[in-house]
Design goal:
Length: 201
């Protein structure tokens, strides 16, 4: 007995089921594109490079900037900024400063070796300065976050103010320089701690 397969059946068996590729499917197509806020057309943003680094993306129809990308320098700065704001480091530094201050006080009472007094005095001043720097830095970051501003502007304002003060009152210059050195040390420590945390996670 011979079995006959109809032409239509054979055709059905050999054809692959119709599959919608993501680029053809209108839903997917809309997911891959974005709406331009200026000309209200769906588009794939075009990338503008600056010395090989992504600089910004634009709408291919009206050339409006769709998104700006942080520069290499900005990304480098971001590495040194703590992602979550907290006063934990300030509290820890203050506690350490208090401990060393207490040791310093004991040293001056019981007349221990001169070097020990010097070390505790140095540690107390350094830790107090760092704690204050941390408090100032966290306060600025908190204020900026509260108003949804970028803290860079606040730091810029602080530096401008310091430069103006240093110009107007030359006797303040040395204190301003010391303040910025301490802020720099705090920034370096915070950056190193951040880098260490990032390498663990
Ligand atoms: Zn557009």
């Amino acid at each position: 007995m011979t079995t006959f397969t109809s032409h239509s059946n054979r055709f059905k068996l050999t054809t692959r089921p119709y599959k919608v590729t993501p680029s053809i499917d209108p839903c997917h197509y809309q997911l891959d594109t974005v709406n331009c806020e200026t000309c209200h057309r769906f588009m794939v943003p075009r990338m503008i490079n600056y010395y090989g680094q992504p600089y910004r993306s634009i709408c291919p129809f009206c050339a409006t900037t769709y998104r700006r990308f942080p520069s290499g320098f900005q990304r480098f700065i971001e590495r040194f900024q703590t992602p979550s704001l907290s006063f934990n480091v300030f509290i820890r530094l203050s506690l350490m400063a208090l401990c060393f201050g207490f040791l310093w006080l004991i040293n001056s009472w019981v007349y221990l070796p001169e070097e020990l007094t010097l070390i505790t005095a140095l540690a107390t001043s350094l830790l107090t300065a760092l704690a204050l720097a941390e408090l100032i830095a966290q306060s600025i970051e908190h204020i900026a976050a509260k108003f949804y501003h970028q803290s860079v502007y606040y730091w810029g304002l602080l530096i401008t103010l310091a430069l103006y003060l240093a110009n107007a009152h030359t006797q303040l210059t040395r204190y301003i320089v010391i303040f910025f050195i301490i802020m720099g040390v705090r920034w370096l420590f915070a950056g190193l701690a951040q880098g260490f945390n990032n390498s663990i996670n």
